[in-house]
Design a protein that fits this description.
Elements (H helix, E strand, L loop, with lengths): L10 H11 L3 H13 L9 H7 L3 H10 L3 H4 L18 E8 L4 E6 L10 E11 L2 E7 L12 E7 L5 E6 L16 E2 L10 E2 L2 E8 L12 E5 L8 H6 L9 E5 L3 E3 L4 E3 L14 E5 L17 E7 L2 E6 L5 H9 L10
Antiparallel strand pairs: 1-2, 1-16, 2-3, 3-4, 4-5, 5-6, 6-9, 7-8, 9-10, 10-11, 11-14, 12-13, 14-15, 15-16
Helix pairs in contact: 2-4, 3-4
Length: 342
């Protein structure tokens, strides 16, 4: 058996890293702020901000303190941004590309309002059949879509009928959360900006489709219950906080479409973001708490909309309190056959 020999550290590389780390905090912060302000508002130029965070630990901490979370900035910068709430005023515009041959779905951040632009890759998901269930494994790596990967983000799991889904996060949504799987020994890779924490499968949401056993005419109905991240936490606190409390579930329902007599179909106003009629198209709004008759919600503001624009192209726009990860998981539930809903 060949002996495994560890590579000797490179003194020159270590000296170079130490030299960068010795910059005065004020100077370091100024450098990162200048990079942030010098045309790095959008991708691909935004990669310069990420490069700053990759220099060393002190540069990473400085970048974390300077860059604001998506809820405040409306920008996705680090992988951690994908599990942070989106902006409140205007939705984050994304699109999903589907590859039917390998049952893989790719999520991109749109550079423009057009769904045909190249976009910035965010994450991918692949559909697997596991006995009577279907699972969608979500990953930061478009090539490595397995639960054992360092890039594993979470998964979506359906029941036999394809009408009830559970969303699992790879990291606990709050302190004390119990993993739904015993396979929690994996750890996030060092490529991530967020600290290393134990990775498992923590249930953070459910998606259900209303049964339509009588095959009655009309669109399928959809309900979601989610553990949404707090929009009050700053970017820095969300990465370093040692105590996070459960915030309680957020409930969403699909916005009911209207029947168009002239077109003879059900219609929703997607404001030009959806161009192809499909049973998969939907808009989600806040739903009132059934246990509290006095509660009131804004049931007009669309928090997530998903719809078809080409054979294998779909737009996905989301806003606070949803994160990109949650929006992607909900959108994935729309694919596939709903045996009791179609």
């Amino acid at each position: 058996m060949d002996e495994v020999v560890e590579a000797e550290p490179d003194p020159e590389a270590e000296d170079q890293e130490e030299r960068w780390a010795r910059l005065l905090p004020e100077l370091l912060s100024d450098v990162v702020q200048r990079v942030e302000a010098s045309g790095g508002e959008r991708w691909p130029a935004r990669k310069d901000v990420v490069s700053c965070a990759c220099v060393c630990r002190r540069w990473r901490e400085s970048a974390v303190a300077v860059v604001r979370p998506p809820a405040e900035s409306g920008k996705i910068t680090f992988p951690s941004s994908l599990k942070q709430p989106g902006p409140r005023e205007s939705p984050m515009q994304c699109f999903i590309k589907r590859n039917k041959k390998n049952s893989t779905f790719y999520l991109y951040l749109g550079f423009t309002s057009s769904p045909v632009d190249k976009g910035k890759f965010l994450m991918a998901a692949r559909r697997f059949r596991r006995g009577p269930h279907t699972e969608y494994i979500m990953s930061l790596d478009s090539e490595d879509l397995s639960q054992g990967s360092n890039a594993y983000m979470g998964k979506l799991r359906s029941d036999f009928w394809g009408t009830n889904f559970k969303i699992y996060d790879s990291k606990p949504p709050y302190d004390g959360a119990k993993a739904s799987s015993s396979r929690s020994s994996r750890r996030f890779g060092s490529r991530r900006i967020s600290p290393q924490v134990s990775a498992g499968n923590y249930e953070v949401g459910q998606v259900s489709y209303k049964y339509n056993l009588l095959k009655s005419r009309g669109p399928r109905r959809m309900y979601c219950t989610l553990e949404c991240p707090s929009a009050q936490e700053t970017w820095e606190n969300s990465l370093k906080t040692k105590f996070r409390r459960p915030l309680g579930p957020t409930t969403l329902r699909n916005k009911a479409p209207r029947w168009h007599e002239h077109l003879q179909c059900w219609c929703l106003n997607f404001h030009g973001r959806v161009t192809v009629a499909s049973v998969k198209n939907f808009q989600l709004v806040a739903a009132a708490d059934p246990s509290d008759p006095t509660s009131s919600v804004d049931d007009e503001t669309v928090l997530l909309q998903f719809g078809k624009v080409a054979d294998d192209m779909f737009t996905m726009d989301y806003r606070q309190p949803l994160s990109a990860f949650q929006a992607f998981a909900i959108s994935l539930s729309s694919f596939g056959t709903k045996l009791a809903c179609e």
